[in-house]
Design brief:
Elements: E1 4-7, H1 18-26, H2 28-39, H3 45-53, H4 61-69, H5 77-87, E2 91-98, H6 99-106, E3 115-122, E4 129-131, H7 143-154, E5 159-163, H8 169-174, E6 177-180, H9 182-191, E7 196-197, H10 201-211
Parallel strand pairs: 1-2, 1-5, 2-3, 5-6, 6-7
Antiparallel strand pairs: 3-4
Helix pairs in contact: 1-2, 2-3, 4-6, 5-10
Length: 216
Protein backbone atom coordinates (compact mmCIF):
# COMPACT_ATOMS: atom_id res chain seq x y z
CA UNK A 1 0.00 0.00 0.00
CA UNK A 2 1.13 3.53 -0.75
CA UNK A 3 -0.87 5.92 1.46
CA UNK A 4 -0.66 9.63 0.71
CA UNK A 5 -1.64 11.85 3.63
CA UNK A 6 -3.69 14.98 2.93
CA UNK A 7 -3.66 17.09 6.08
CA UNK A 8 -5.58 20.24 6.97
CA UNK A 9 -3.59 23.03 8.58
CA UNK A 10 -5.56 25.42 10.80
CA UNK A 11 -6.76 23.66 13.94
CA UNK A 12 -5.21 20.39 12.76
CA UNK A 13 -1.47 20.94 12.35
CA UNK A 14 -1.79 24.07 14.45
CA UNK A 15 -3.05 23.61 17.97
CA UNK A 16 -5.61 26.40 17.61
CA UNK A 17 -7.93 27.62 14.85
CA UNK A 18 -5.37 30.17 13.72
CA UNK A 19 -7.05 31.27 10.49
CA UNK A 20 -10.39 31.89 12.19
CA UNK A 21 -8.60 33.72 15.00
CA UNK A 22 -6.87 36.02 12.55
CA UNK A 23 -10.12 36.78 10.72
CA UNK A 24 -11.81 37.60 14.03
CA UNK A 25 -8.95 39.93 14.94
CA UNK A 26 -8.71 41.86 11.68
CA UNK A 27 -12.33 41.80 10.47
CA UNK A 28 -14.34 41.33 13.69
CA UNK A 29 -17.77 42.56 12.59
CA UNK A 30 -17.90 40.49 9.41
CA UNK A 31 -16.50 37.50 11.30
CA UNK A 32 -19.30 37.65 13.84
CA UNK A 33 -21.79 37.67 10.99
CA UNK A 34 -20.28 35.22 8.50
CA UNK A 35 -18.28 32.58 10.40
CA UNK A 36 -21.31 31.06 12.20
CA UNK A 37 -23.12 30.84 8.85
CA UNK A 38 -20.20 28.94 7.30
CA UNK A 39 -20.13 26.57 10.28
CA UNK A 40 -23.86 25.83 10.03
CA UNK A 41 -23.51 25.39 6.25
CA UNK A 42 -25.91 28.21 5.30
CA UNK A 43 -23.14 30.22 3.61
CA UNK A 44 -20.63 28.70 1.21
CA UNK A 45 -16.95 28.78 2.06
CA UNK A 46 -16.30 30.40 -1.30
CA UNK A 47 -18.51 33.36 -0.50
CA UNK A 48 -17.63 33.68 3.17
CA UNK A 49 -13.86 33.29 3.08
CA UNK A 50 -13.46 35.62 0.10
CA UNK A 51 -15.60 38.35 1.68
CA UNK A 52 -13.74 38.07 4.98
CA UNK A 53 -10.22 38.12 3.56
CA UNK A 54 -10.94 40.86 1.04
CA UNK A 55 -12.23 43.12 3.82
CA UNK A 56 -8.80 43.05 5.52
CA UNK A 57 -6.49 45.96 4.72
CA UNK A 58 -3.20 44.91 3.14
CA UNK A 59 -1.23 46.91 5.70
CA UNK A 60 -2.15 44.27 8.28
CA UNK A 61 -0.56 41.41 6.33
CA UNK A 62 2.90 41.57 7.99
CA UNK A 63 1.24 41.44 11.41
CA UNK A 64 -0.85 38.43 10.29
CA UNK A 65 2.32 36.62 9.21
CA UNK A 66 3.98 37.43 12.53
CA UNK A 67 1.05 35.87 14.40
CA UNK A 68 1.37 32.72 12.31
CA UNK A 69 5.13 32.61 12.87
CA UNK A 70 4.42 32.07 16.56
CA UNK A 71 1.45 29.71 16.25
CA UNK A 72 1.97 26.51 18.31
CA UNK A 73 1.81 23.14 16.56
CA UNK A 74 -0.41 20.30 17.70
CA UNK A 75 1.38 17.76 19.85
CA UNK A 76 3.21 15.06 17.94
CA UNK A 77 3.08 16.68 14.50
CA UNK A 78 6.81 16.98 13.86
CA UNK A 79 7.42 13.44 15.08
CA UNK A 80 4.62 12.21 12.81
CA UNK A 81 6.13 14.11 9.87
CA UNK A 82 9.49 12.42 10.49
CA UNK A 83 7.72 9.06 10.73
CA UNK A 84 5.96 9.55 7.38
CA UNK A 85 9.14 10.65 5.62
CA UNK A 86 11.02 7.65 7.01
CA UNK A 87 8.30 5.36 5.66
CA UNK A 88 8.14 7.13 2.30
CA UNK A 89 4.54 8.29 2.83
CA UNK A 90 4.10 11.83 1.44
CA UNK A 91 2.32 14.46 3.53
CA UNK A 92 0.45 17.09 1.54
CA UNK A 93 -0.89 20.12 3.41
CA UNK A 94 -4.28 21.17 2.07
CA UNK A 95 -5.52 24.35 3.71
CA UNK A 96 -8.63 26.41 3.25
CA UNK A 97 -6.50 29.34 4.41
CA UNK A 98 -3.34 30.92 3.05
CA UNK A 99 -0.26 29.08 1.81
CA UNK A 100 1.89 31.85 3.30
CA UNK A 101 0.52 31.02 6.75
CA UNK A 102 1.69 27.41 6.42
CA UNK A 103 5.16 28.57 5.34
CA UNK A 104 5.49 30.98 8.25
CA UNK A 105 4.31 28.55 10.91
CA UNK A 106 6.36 25.55 9.80
CA UNK A 107 9.50 27.60 9.23
CA UNK A 108 12.47 25.27 8.62
CA UNK A 109 10.16 22.23 8.61
CA UNK A 110 8.24 23.55 5.61
CA UNK A 111 10.64 21.75 3.28
CA UNK A 112 9.79 18.45 4.96
CA UNK A 113 6.22 18.38 3.61
CA UNK A 114 5.69 17.12 0.08
CA UNK A 115 3.57 20.06 -1.11
CA UNK A 116 1.08 22.70 0.02
CA UNK A 117 -2.23 23.69 -1.55
CA UNK A 118 -4.19 26.73 -0.40
CA UNK A 119 -5.02 30.35 -1.09
CA UNK A 120 -2.68 33.02 -2.38
CA UNK A 121 -3.13 36.75 -1.84
CA UNK A 122 -2.01 39.97 -3.43
CA UNK A 123 -1.18 42.85 -1.13
CA UNK A 124 -0.53 45.66 -3.62
CA UNK A 125 -3.98 47.21 -3.21
CA UNK A 126 -5.64 48.73 -0.16
CA UNK A 127 -7.33 45.41 0.66
CA UNK A 128 -6.13 41.82 0.31
CA UNK A 129 -7.02 40.19 -3.00
CA UNK A 130 -7.57 36.43 -2.96
CA UNK A 131 -6.48 34.02 -5.68
CA UNK A 132 -7.04 30.29 -5.84
CA UNK A 133 -6.10 27.66 -8.41
CA UNK A 134 -8.62 25.21 -6.93
CA UNK A 135 -12.00 26.92 -6.81
CA UNK A 136 -15.25 25.02 -7.10
CA UNK A 137 -18.85 26.14 -7.07
CA UNK A 138 -18.92 26.31 -3.27
CA UNK A 139 -15.27 26.40 -2.11
CA UNK A 140 -12.27 28.63 -2.73
CA UNK A 141 -10.02 25.64 -2.10
CA UNK A 142 -11.78 22.49 -3.25
CA UNK A 143 -10.09 19.75 -1.29
CA UNK A 144 -11.89 16.98 -3.23
CA UNK A 145 -10.40 18.34 -6.47
CA UNK A 146 -6.94 18.41 -4.93
CA UNK A 147 -7.28 14.87 -3.56
CA UNK A 148 -8.36 13.62 -6.95
CA UNK A 149 -5.60 15.37 -8.91
CA UNK A 150 -2.72 14.72 -6.51
CA UNK A 151 -3.90 11.21 -5.67
CA UNK A 152 -4.05 10.28 -9.34
CA UNK A 153 -0.58 11.70 -10.04
CA UNK A 154 0.96 10.03 -7.00
CA UNK A 155 -1.11 6.82 -7.20
CA UNK A 156 -2.36 7.26 -3.66
CA UNK A 157 -3.52 3.92 -2.26
CA UNK A 158 -5.29 4.82 -0.12
CA UNK A 159 -5.63 8.59 0.24
CA UNK A 160 -5.76 9.53 3.94
CA UNK A 161 -7.40 12.73 5.16
CA UNK A 162 -6.71 14.43 8.50
CA UNK A 163 -8.93 17.36 9.42
CA UNK A 164 -10.98 19.20 11.98
CA UNK A 165 -13.62 21.48 10.48
CA UNK A 166 -16.01 22.53 7.73
CA UNK A 167 -13.31 23.04 5.08
CA UNK A 168 -12.53 19.31 5.30
CA UNK A 169 -16.09 18.00 5.07
CA UNK A 170 -16.50 17.37 1.35
CA UNK A 171 -13.07 15.75 1.04
CA UNK A 172 -13.68 13.59 4.11
CA UNK A 173 -16.93 12.27 2.66
CA UNK A 174 -15.02 11.18 -0.45
CA UNK A 175 -11.97 9.74 1.32
CA UNK A 176 -11.69 6.08 2.42
CA UNK A 177 -9.49 6.76 5.48
CA UNK A 178 -10.29 9.79 7.63
CA UNK A 179 -8.92 11.06 10.94
CA UNK A 180 -11.26 13.69 12.37
CA UNK A 181 -11.63 15.88 15.42
CA UNK A 182 -13.77 18.78 16.61
CA UNK A 183 -16.43 20.05 14.16
CA UNK A 184 -15.46 17.62 11.40
CA UNK A 185 -16.06 14.68 13.71
CA UNK A 186 -19.55 16.05 14.41
CA UNK A 187 -20.37 16.58 10.75
CA UNK A 188 -19.25 13.05 9.88
CA UNK A 189 -21.13 11.47 12.77
CA UNK A 190 -24.32 13.20 11.61
CA UNK A 191 -23.80 11.74 8.13
CA UNK A 192 -22.89 8.23 9.21
CA UNK A 193 -19.36 8.44 7.77
CA UNK A 194 -16.78 6.23 9.47
CA UNK A 195 -13.69 7.99 10.81
CA UNK A 196 -10.90 7.63 13.35
CA UNK A 197 -11.14 10.24 16.13
CA UNK A 198 -7.96 11.91 17.37
CA UNK A 199 -6.72 14.61 19.70
CA UNK A 200 -3.06 14.74 18.64
CA UNK A 201 -0.68 13.26 16.10
CA UNK A 202 0.71 10.72 18.53
CA UNK A 203 -2.61 8.89 18.27
CA UNK A 204 -2.58 9.13 14.47
CA UNK A 205 0.95 7.73 14.28
CA UNK A 206 -0.04 4.81 16.48
CA UNK A 207 -3.00 4.08 14.20
CA UNK A 208 -0.77 4.31 11.12
CA UNK A 209 1.51 1.64 12.55
CA UNK A 210 -1.51 -0.67 12.85
CA UNK A 211 -3.05 0.20 9.46
CA UNK A 212 0.17 0.15 7.46
CA UNK A 213 2.61 -2.23 9.18
CA UNK A 214 6.22 -2.24 8.04
CA UNK A 215 6.04 -5.74 6.56
CA UNK A 216 2.77 -5.04 4.67
Amino acid sequence: MNPVVFCDFDGTITRDETFVGILRKFTPEKSRELIPRMYDLTLTLKEGVRELLESVESRHYPEMLEIMRNAPLREGFLTFLDYLNARGFPLIVVTGGLEDFVRETLGPFFKEVHSVYGLKVRTDGRFLQVRSDWESGTELVSKPRILEAAGRTMRADPPVLIGDSVTDLEAALACPVVFARDRLAGYLSERGKTFCPFDDFTEIQRSFGEMFPVDA
